[in-house]
């Protein structure tokens, strides 16, 4: 049996799908049966919705790889961009939906123009480049997207970067005409990631992000040869669902939800991909992740283990529980425990259950840090709110949560002293409970104790009469417990 290098940071892949080498990502990526519409070129518009760490960026990267390497797509122009990059190309102010929608269209066209410039070798400032005007956007309808844009920018793009003057074509209009003649049937795939970065649930942000979705829907169906794919956090989408312009959007949304089988395949295929790269001639390189997953796990992990009243089970059961069905958490947990195994025993060839236990405090600290980085802009005292649970119990009813917040966060303070929560003024302790539910710090525990309901499953659950009457048990997620000294 081969010996896997537990210290190799590439063993479990890159936690950030957008940073992984596309060829490596493709070697271990597990497709979901619900992703068909995302890849389908006949589907003009599709948006992936999920919580942080669920693989939204990885899905875009996988599509990026297929678009560039799969002959089925006929070599399209691929424009990969983040929401922050698009926002940086303009000045988004105000709340007028009609204005913002048209402004988003202009910004998107501007980005495509810049990408064409990068492709054929002319330099233009992203701040002063001539954008397609709103009136001209109307003239693009039902035309080839690339051809329509190029026909409107001939002679309009100023040559302003003197440092790269030698790289600028002398006759820009001729270059554009030549490009258009060669690519008149070319399609454009616009891949937009993290459009909701730093989102706060205020009317201004709702207008800004809501108008983006209205704009891309209009562009996708008004222009020929244009496909748009984007990602959005589930909690943000839930907050936007009441907007009138988005009432027809349900058909374009794909919710990323991974089952234990998906996660099992994901982890076993990452190990198999690593074995194929490092030990291509070994018998283990011929394993199939769908049927030989236990053999692959045994290359890295102790087997069997005793876990949660199960006398004999796979290490994957423990990994899955701590990962909260988030691929990023799973990768981080595996990497940290593998490093601990190598550190605690230089001769160690596998990760044992006690190695996972030894890193849980640090793992929980990282999870808390993630929450703060992702959501502090929604509530400035999030750190202190999480610490309310420190050294307390792991399960609560509604009234017990209220008492917890009253004793450890609210006592001695006026209502006006509690910060705004997700763009809304604080009213009472129920607001704090609803917020930690939304973040995933707590979830509803089923009667049998084996299943949990998260915010994305039922966003209004915390504010129901059922909850206020004490009929729901809330549980602090297992990933945070050791760090918060919860037993």
General shape: flat
| Overall number of domains | 3
Low-confidence stretches: 126-131, 159-166
Number of strands: 11
Count of helical stretches:
20
The CATH architecture of the largest domain comes to 3-Layer(aba) Sandwich
The class by helix and strand makeup works out as alpha/beta
User: Roughly how much helix do the residues carry, as a percent range?
Assistant: 40-55%
How does this structure look, described?
The chain is α/β, with parallel strands linked by helices and 487 residues long. The chain folds into three domains: 33-255, Rossmann fold (3-Layer(aba) Sandwich); 260-360, no CATH class; 379-481, no CATH class. The protein is 45% helix and 10% strand. The chain contains 20 helices and eleven strands. The strands form three sheets. Strands 2-3-4-1-5 form a five-stranded parallel sheet, with helices on both faces. Strands 8-11-9-10 form a four-stranded antiparallel sheet. Helix 1 (22-28) packs across helix 3, helix 14 (327-344) crosses helix 15 and helix 17 crosses helix 18. The two termini are 39 Å apart. Mean pLDDT is 85; it is low at 126-131 and 159-166.
């Amino acid at each position: 049996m081969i010996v896997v290098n537990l210290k190799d940071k590439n063993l479990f892949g890159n936690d950030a799908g957008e940073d992984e080498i596309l060829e490596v990502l493709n070697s271990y990526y597990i497709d979901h049966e619900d992703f068909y519409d995302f890849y389908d070129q006949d589907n003009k518009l599709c948006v992936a919705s999920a919580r942080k760490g669920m693989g939204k960026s990885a899905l875009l990267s996988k599509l990026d790889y297929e678009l560039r390497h799969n002959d089925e797509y006929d070599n399209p122009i691929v424009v990969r961009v983040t929401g922050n990059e698009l926002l940086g190309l303009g000045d988004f102010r105000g709340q007028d939906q009609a204005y913002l929608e048209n402004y988003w269209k202009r910004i998107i066209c501007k980005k495509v123009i810049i990408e064409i410039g990068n492709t054929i070798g002319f330099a233009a400032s992203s701040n002063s480049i001539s954008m397609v005007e709103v009136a001209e956007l109307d003239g693009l309808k039902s035309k080839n997207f690339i051809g329509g844009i190029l026909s409107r920018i001939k002679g309009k793009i100023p040559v302003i970067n003197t440092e790269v003057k030698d790289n600028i074509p002398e006759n820009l209009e001729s270059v554009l005409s030549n490009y258009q003649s060669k690519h008149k049937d070319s399609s454009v795939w616009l891949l937009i990631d993290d459009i909701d970065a730093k989102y706060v649930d205020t009317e201004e942000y709702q207008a800004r992000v809501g108008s983006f979705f209205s704009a891309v829907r209009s562009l996708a169906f008004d222009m020929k040869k244009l496909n748009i794919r984007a990602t959005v956090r589930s909690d943000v989408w839930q907050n936007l669902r009441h907007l009138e312009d988005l009432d027809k959007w349900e058909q374009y949304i794909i919710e990323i939800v991974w089952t234990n089988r998906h996660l099992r395949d994901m982890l076993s295929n990452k190990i198999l991909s690593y074995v194929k790269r490092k030990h291509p001639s070994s018998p283990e390189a011929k394993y199939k992740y769908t049927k030989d997953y236990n053999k692959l796990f045994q290359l890295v992990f102790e087997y069997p283990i005793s876990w949660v009243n199960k006398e004999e089970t796979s290490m994957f059961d423990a990994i899955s529980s701590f990962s909260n069905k988030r691929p990023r958490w799973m990768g981080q947990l595996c990497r940290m425990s593998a490093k601990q195994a190598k550190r605690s025993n230089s001769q160690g060839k596998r990760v044992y259950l006690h190695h996972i236990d030894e890193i849980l405090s640090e793992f929980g600290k990282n999870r808390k840090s993630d929450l703060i980085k992702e959501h502090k802009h929604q509530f400035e005292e999030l750190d202190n709110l999480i610490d309310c649970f420190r050294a307390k119990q792991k399960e609560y009813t509604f009234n017990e949560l209220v008492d917890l917040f009253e004793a450890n966060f609210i006592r001695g303070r006026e209502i006006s002293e509690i910060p705004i929560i997700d763009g809304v003024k604080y009213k009472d302790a129920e607001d704090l409970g609803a917020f930690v539910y939304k973040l995933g710090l707590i979830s509803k525990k089923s009667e049998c104790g084996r299943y949990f309901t998260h915010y994305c499953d039922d966003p209004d659950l915390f504010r129901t009469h059922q909850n206020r009457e004490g009929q729901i048990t809330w549980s602090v997620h297992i990933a945070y417990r050791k760090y918060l000294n919860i037993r």
